[in-house]
Amino acid sequence: MRHNKKFNHLGRKKAHRDAMLANMTISLIMHKRIFTTLEKAKALRMYAEPLINRAKEDNTPNRRLVFSHLQNKFAVTELFREVAQKIADRNGGYTRIIKTGNRLGDNAKTCFIELVDYNENMKKDSAAKKTTRTRRSRKSSAEKAAPAAEAPVAETPAAEAPAAE
Q1: pLDDT tens-digit map of 33-77
Q2: What separation in angstroms does the CA of 9 have from each of 23, 49, 92, 94?
Q3: Is the pLDDT of residue 133 over 80?
Q4: Contact at 8 Å (CB) between 29 and 83?
Q5: What is the largest CA-CA distance in the chain?
Q6: DSSP character string of 83-137
Q7: How far is the C-alpha of 82 from the C-alpha of 78, rounded, in Å?
Q8: 95 close to 34: Cβ distance less than 8 angstroms
Q9: How high does pLDDT run on average in the chain?
């Protein structure tokens, strides 16, 4: 029986699955965003986040452990230098999965998985959304917007402005 064995095998044997997840982790570290299926992205998140968490403390045992999983010295160097500086203040959740719809050929659910701190577009959106709102602010903002739209705008042409002497 399969009690308490909720691991997605992705239709592969263990060696093939480990090699695939290691290669996907290397691509994620090097390119900061990869496009894949939803199930592979969920499995990748479980595989990559503990390795990314190891990069917070740069010491020899952590480097050896990460290298034993990835087997790519360029990815390990990138992880411990650039990525570790960006995630130093984050306690977890280093990756984000954004769904992109279904694939045409086999109708598989597709998405892209990215490192959270490297998406500049999301940072701009979150900075713009940081306005304090309460439950009742929606009604009051709608009332404020209606009179403002009806009020006439005073026009001051630049030609009528007095010139400085």
Answers
A1: 999 999 999 999 999 999 999 999 999 999 999 999 999 999 999
A2: 16, 18, 24, 23
A3: no
A4: yes
A5: 93
A6: IHHHTTT--S--EEEEEEEE-TTT--EEEEEEEGGG-HHHHHHHHHT-----TTH
A7: 6
A8: no
A9: 85
